[in-house]
Model the fold of this input.
Amino acid sequence: MDGSSKVLYMSDKRLILGFTTYLMILVFMVCTVFAANLEADIGEYETGIYRDSAFIVPVSVTVDKAGTASVTLYPADGLSCDICVEQLVFDTPSTKEIFFTVTADNTGIYENPFDIEVSMADSVLVTATSPSIITVNIAPIMILEFSSDKYNVSYSDTTILTLSISVTGPIDGIFVYLDYHSDNWTMLSGNNTYDIGTITGEYDLSWILSADTPYPSNDFTITVTSTDPQEHITRTLSILKISEPDTSATDGGGNNEKANNNTTNTTDNDYNNKKKTDDNTSINNNTTIDNITMDYPNNTIMSATKKEATHRQVLVAGTGLNENIRLQTALETALGKDIMAQDIINDMMRISESITTQIDMNRQINVGSSQSNMQTSIKYKGKEKMTNFILYDVVPKSFALSAKDIKVTAPGARVEIVEDDPEFAIIFDTVSPGDILIIDYEVAAAVDADIVSSFTSEVYGINFEETDMCAQVMTTAINTETYECIIYPTPCDIPEGWDIIESCPVKSVVTNDSSEKEPVNNISKYMIIVSLLGIVGIIMVLHKNKPKKHSY
Done:
């Protein structure tokens, strides 16, 4: 090959390389022009959260073409969302915002609380990371003490009501409302409502009221609410009326005649209804003391009894099972002899530690004139089904002296008396995520409602059942009717009428309308024409530069 041939050969290579580069750039430009452009952003959200509370995470999505965008939120472990995948339909190029509700299940500091992914047909998968750290703490507790300086009044007497509020941490938006029979009582000091705001330690309120025409039994109810955390607590106390002396029946000397003044014996249960004299001689129910006749019906408790109270119990991990022989014996009786092997005990304590933060436990007590009922509700928020869920409940003696005095109702559970002191082991065979368990204690006596906060509990489980957990794998699916293609976060999120495929086709929406098919066909035509032109151009150049043969 002479010098001129080499020059032509090098020129041919440069021309071929140039045409190839030109074709690649042209194809890339065509694909880019017709692909959808996606942008995603996470907005501002609360960064200081209480455990078990929910907060809103806003996500904005911008597209430059019509279509459907699939938005998926991935919360960190300890946070959860009931609906983690949403669809945004865009009729025109625009920006839309969607809101996810996230619940803080566990306490802790979350440096990367959640990520989002946005997918759309003919576009690249877009991701975004949460910009702010979230701190989750246990919500502070509010404790109320509502009392009176006297619980028995006559006409025109005054009484002082006192409310003491104490909190374990800052609580905002506290509002207090006092409800009473204003037609029968006059408020001499204080207000019906108080907008307190924030309390960080203790706070006291008092009211002075005058008994104008009191009822035989007068209820005073205090209601305290807060906004952060949200609480609604009520306390009720009763004040009894003391009748005025009865002067309608007198003898000739002007002395009052007391009817039915026979001496009777009293029992311990009547100590509030009758007064014993110094020589232990009982007097009748109509007793005159200091020229005032107190008329108490039988079996009436003169001391103030709060009739209703609620308490949200904070659980701690159960550690006493290892040394609590009485509890082990009760569980062996209920579940079998070998259930209390040391390795099982260790597993139960580990499970207790893991599920304690996944349980909401609330107690509510209602006190009647001759009986008291306390209802305990337990909501399991874990994600695994548990077998042999156990509530170990220690009941204060001020509620009942013996376990035999308590009527226990627990639908679907076995109740074992651990000790007559009283202590119970309440066993549920299985507990599934979201289950709410109800336990009722009933005693034939009126107790102080404040006792609701004196119960102590531990929770245990034997093991977790294996469930068909959904694989956390991004999965592509296509609609069998519309041929719309979407990437879902897991196979379980794919709705009916969609088929799993390896990847989305070039165009995700195909219909019978020829006008909608035309853009796809045009793209193919353009690419074919460009390719043919490139090939023809290369052939022409090669032919033109082909060395000519000369005859001599």
